[in-house]
Amino acid sequence: MAFFTGNANVELKDQKKVFGGQQLRFRHASNTLQCDMDFSVFLPPQAEVGKVPAVYWLSGLTCTDENFSSKAGAQRVAADLGVALIIPDTSPRGEGVPDDPDGAYDFGLGAGFYVNATEAPWAKHYQMYDYIVDELPNLVESGLPVSDARAISGHSMGGHGALVIGLRNSERYSSISAFSPIVNPINCAWGKKAFAGYLGSDERKWRQYDASVLLQERDNRSHDIPPILVDQGDADNFYPEQLRTETLIAVNTETSAGAKIRFQEGYDHSYYFIASFIEEHLRFHASNLR
Length: 290
Hints:
Layout: E1 10-18, E2 21-30, E3 35-43, E4 52-58, H1 67-71, H2 75-81, E5 84-88, H3 128-143, E6 146-155, H4 157-168, E7 173-179, H5 189-199, H6 211-217, E8 228-233, H7 245-254, E9 260-264, H8 271-289
Parallel strand pairs: 4-5, 4-6, 6-7, 7-8, 8-9
Antiparallel strand pairs: 1-2, 2-3, 3-5
Helix pairs in contact: 6-7
């Protein structure tokens, strides 16, 4: 199978066969982020004979495109369902890309928060929202046997990104899911720090990147809301202060959104939690992608 034929801006970095499909890693020159970006892809065996739908996975703080591929155990189910997995990095990287001046884990490299930064020096590179919504899908769908039937999922910061991107682009995603998402970032320490840095002090600009706010605003347009599944472990050390799950539950109850929000007893914030429930999430997406 050929990948990105004729596209000199995309380099195949790694290729492994798994469950009859292919686990791939690419590097490309991103116009949106103004740097080289790595992303990982799992193509199920069905991609040998035609285009397949895709679940886009957004990872959390400190992660790269490789964490989900190596820890979640998602390939077996994706191969069975005939669904591709598209896994971007969590921020721009490389020479000239600024990082948190104190080297903190929750801002800068590995912590792009899936927003379009407007503040210097972040605005030149930190345009992760546009990268996920536009550039990456256009690249993938033009160079791989992947269709424009999309779902989106993620963990923690990536769960925030999946909810925000899915809600703001409901015509592009057939379903949304999240593990341990940051659902009300305008009211938690992680979100306040990231949004102040990337978006500036005007908190009105922050609201467009808050899933709880977006769900509330779509109350009268529930037909525009894709099916949503959220799982939260009740032994998560970042719950409730950073994740603020109850805020999303309250909004979901007040509105006609119909999101399915579940607490899972004894589970923490780790990839062990994701590995335990990823099959349910992928089958949820597959049922909506058909």
